[in-house]
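Sequence only, no structure available. Ideas?
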Amino acid sequence: TGAINGLLGWYMIREGKKMLSITIEGDGRHLITDAVMSAGLVIGLVLIDLTKIAVLDSLLSIAIGLFIVYTAYKLVRKSVAGLMDETDFSMVDEVLQILNKNREIEWIDIHNLRAQRYGNELHIDCHMTLPNYFDLTRVHHEVSKADELVNQFGNIKTEFFIHADPCIPECCFYCRMPNCPIRSQEKTEDYIWDMARVAQNNKHFATETIVIAHE
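Reply:
I predicted one. C-alpha cells follow.
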C-alpha cells in the first residue's frame, strides 16, 4: 500500500506542477507523506528487532514528523505567495523571453511590471510605452498583440492589464521606430527587457540613469 501511495503521489505531484494546480500537488504530497510514514514504520520495526534499541522508534518518529512539517510548510508557503501578491519570477522570466523574442518595433519599452499567479492563471500589470502620435485604435491594437503573443506561446494562461504610455523625447535614443516624424535624436542603444528594467516604475531612459548612478 505504501509503495502504491508513493507512486500515485509522485504522479499527482508531477501532473499538478504541469497543470499549475496546487490542490493536485498537495494531494500528491499527502500520499507521499503516507508512503514515508509506512516505510518509516516498517524500517523502525526491523531496526528495533535487529538492534534491540527501543529509542530508534522515537528518533524515526521525530524524523517523519519533521518531514511532514517541511512538506506542509512548502505547500502553505506556495499558497500564501499568491495571496500576498508576490511576483512569480520564473513565470515573469518566461513572459519576458517571449516578448523579447517577438518584440514589435512599435513597443518602445515595458516598465512597472507586476505579476502574480492565481492557481493555473497568471495576472500581469505593466506599462507599455508607444509612439505618442498613435490614435486610440492603434494603441488598442498594439496592446492586444502583446496579450495574444504571450498567451499563444506561454505555458500558462495570462491575463494582461497594460497601461499605454506616450513616448517623450528622452525615449528616442532607444526607440526603434523607422521614419519617426517626431524623432529628436538618433537611436544609439538596444535594451533587452530584463527583470531589472521592466520592474522599475520608470521609462527605460530613467532606469538607465538609476543603474549608472548605482555603479
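Residues 89-214 form a domain with the Alpha-Beta Plaits fold (CATH 3.30.70.1350).
Hope that gets you unstuck.
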